[in-house]
Amino acid sequence: MQGRLVTLEWPGDDDWAAIASWLRPGSPAAVLSGDWELLGAAEVEQANRSGRVHHLVIRTKDGTRIGTVSYQRSGRIGGYTVGGAIGSPELWRRGYGAEAVVLLVDYLFHQLDAHRVQVTTAGYNKGIIRLMTKTPFVVEGILRDHCYLDGEYHDAIVWGLLRDEHYASLKPSEDNRVLAVGLEDFVSEDDKVQARAVLAAHLATADRTALTPYLEPDVTTPNAIVPAERGAA
């Protein structure tokens, strides 16, 4: 997945330790997100391979590995929770993390048939809250005393985005305050149309189809259902 500033890639064998370090308790990214995982590289890899969570590596245009985004299933079918972390504070507020999350969200809706995507942010993170207010995400609730920092508990904000809201945000309008990425189709619309045309031509001329008995039912077959004539008793 490629954006203007970053690309998202599936992790390789040398990425698991970096992901674990970004998510460890006390790391700058974990502190500001209000979320952390007490996992080593092997545990992070196992969590991904088991399907419990899916991480992607964020890389800049020159290939530098700078962070991660993740998604996992949540609630009913079609629900996902996403998160992310840029490792070094020196790279914050440059748009890398924002674009990475936008790419991931669009991937979930456009390729995985997501119906709802959820993000939870710490109530003390001014930067991420300001960013979220510039997206189509909707504030859905407050989790009281959900995060702990500097000797006290803090609330967290739950943001949600539905499928129709996402696609509406891709259309140019005066209300769009953050540029939506919008991933290109994996298969072009022209190829999809041609595929249907090839199949239609085959069905019209060939006998090698299991549909023929249904299109031209054999009325001599025992127990065949024959439509009743109008007015029949």
UniProtKB/TrEMBL annotation:
Residues 1-164 form the N-acetyltransferase domain. It comes from the Bacteria. This is GNAT family N-acetyltransferase. It comes from Streptomyces endophytica.
